[in-house]
Amino acid sequence: MGRIVALLNQKGGVGKTTVTVGLASAAAASGQRVLVVDLDPQASSTWILGHDPATVEVSTAEVLAKADADKAIVESTWSPLIDLLPASNRLQPHEHGKPKRLRNALERIADRYDAILIDCPPSLGNLTTSGLTAASLAIIVVEPSALGLRGIGAVADVIDEVWDAHNDSLELAGVIVNKVPAISGEADRRYDELTRIVGKKAIWQPVIPQRVIVNQASGERRSIHSYGARSADVTAAFDQLWKKLRRITRA
């Protein structure tokens, strides 16, 4: 059965969605099938993967209200290997609800995919709790900045709380570092700080470099792999991170 992975951070702007869809792009490039679950009311994953949140008829909001996941899943415009469970503007009211509903919905379809990637909102409320309750693995996404590292302890605490209250199969798989500049003393210092906080082994390698092409890909709603040599260092990072994720999910 495909493992379910929640990607999260309470800090917005760290590139959580970028990492989620980048891993999906790497999966498709390697011939593997993934489902992206958009739990963020901003619906960035939904938009980037080719669907307008304003016109989505069945979304994660309805799944959280007991709709069948099958009724909500659509194919992304990137690849037939990337499916999407889209978000809509109806998702925000579900910040209060029963966290096990998403898990029940995803368990019925998990064996269709090599992995299910849940893009959690930039908060630690009920939507993130629902994502963690459904997941086998949690990955924290950070950027090497002072604001990017704030609150990592709170995120780890929420993972522990969900493990204790809702999902004793949940594991913290590690930390992915995004938006790493080529040369920056400040970024180096923050990376060292992160190492002290979580430990060197918890930080996945390689880090994802900061490149203009990443923002361009999001704006053009295209897979990072579709840019060929122009995005070679970024796609190489996502390919390696996907391989690591696959090793863990098959364990």
From TrEMBL:
Pfam family, one: AAA_31
Regions that span the bilayer: none
Domain AAA, first and last residues per copy: 3-171
Name of the protein described by the UniProt record: Unannotated protein
